[in-house]
Amino acid sequence: MSGTGGGTGSGTGSGTERTDVLVIGSGFGGAIAAYHLAAGGAKVVLLERGPWLKGEDFDHDFKLGSSYTRIFDFVVGDGMSVLGGNCVGGGSVVYFAAMPRAPGFVFERRGSIGRRMWPAALTRDTLDPWYDRVAEALPVSQQDWPDVTYAGGLWAAACAHAGGTANPVPVAVDNDRCTNCNWMMAGCRFDAKRSLLLNYLPAAIAHGTEIRPLHEVQHLSRTDDGGYRVHYNVVDGEDYRVHDSSGVIDAKLVVLAAGAGATPVILQRSEPALGPMPYAVGRYFSGNGERLNTAIVDEDRVREVLGLERGDGLAYAANQIGRGPVVANWDRLDPSLPEHSRFSLEQLYFPPGLGTILAQAPGATGPTWFGVEKKEILRRWQSWLTVFIMVEDDNEGVFGPPPATGNAMRLSQQMLGRGNLSYHPTANTLRGWSEADAAVRDILERDGLAEVMPWTNDVVGAYTVHPLASCRIGDDPASSALDDRHELRGHPGIFVTDGSAVPGALTVNPAMTIAALAERAMPAIVEAARERGVPVRYGAPAPDGSTSGRRGVASLAGGLTRR
Question: Tens digits of per-residue pLDDT, 416-436?
């Protein structure tokens, strides 16, 4: 347990705990920073709001108090709800391990500000070597058709029947260890999913990083020597509404990686102590343009039209077999199309729970998300095929005043909270969703294969599992909170490396891009630490000792320091 001395002032009391670098959050942005800084010689403490679970701790049930409720954070806002990780390893523990790279046109997007959103120095070509570092570290592999599950095969066959294409998705999964249990969203019991618990985090610990779970950072203040004081509460392991104690740690440099739903809230709450924040802190939030459609498959038509047969008398009935996304349709990721008309369509397994609540009954004569007709489609749940849509949204989200503690007002002992995010889709975002919905219907309703309905927004508003852009990088101080090296404008020594730094929707799963940007930020963060008296250097290999990724970025690292 960490020290609790030092009070809330900005001085440096003799009883206050100190470290070189304090990392907030243990997802991709936090784990990568902790590893490189510790491997380079810095003393690193990492504070994580959620619990620390290992493979054998992940439960295959939905009971209150199971790993499923302990490792998620579901925050309901005004028009947007955010589902994220709440555990050591962050989103990597609960994600589906899909790791595509963002298409090149993403980096040229203009978005809601009407001009290039991304820093001029960042393009797909300049980010590719950093993508390579991540691919080596996890590692990431390209699935092939023999790896595709029943659900992915059905989606691929339907895309081909409609005259389109389908692509196996690159993943951070060890297929030899995967049992196709379809519980990967609740953590992987078999260590087949290459979460951060298996690479960056153990490597960071091996180099001396101290990870402290159930530590929720509240705000930052300054110390007299130019560093930062991090104020935290220790959260009860059973009831997250209860705080067992509080404390502070002083650090020469802080890396914020609490997620796009929490990082801006911490900075907003820090404003009275630190002074004005950049205008973009807590603004320009993106839900990665996400939306879900559920298709109720006609088993007979699948057999007759697509010629699919499992060999046991069933054409499909396979929703319970497989794993997360394995096949995507990328036909509309065409740079020649206008912005907001480009999107991906990805087959997805979404386990019972939120999906059974928000899925709507196609063709219902009464209510679509509850009632007799909804009960009937729930009876046929094995014939569901879920399609995950990612469009270019308009960065509509804005965070209101922060809650008293944490990133949300806790409504239950675990998982559920009410946040201060407001999100009201613009005509551009609505058009993107409408075009993507129509594309899904065109593929799956052709020749009577299925009936399709999008998940309802009536219950919790729009929803995202990939929050982005609430403290984004950019060249324009008026519309970006961070410079292109991820340092917070006006607050030297504070860096942000999580999804909040990504400028906008990516049209694909964002984990690979978040991780690549974090890798790219490390030379500048190391240099800033050195300028603050931390004896650290940049140049660690991949966590397993591989060096090809390091060689690939060797010529780039020098250009990313302030010198």
Answer: 999 999 999 999 999 999 999
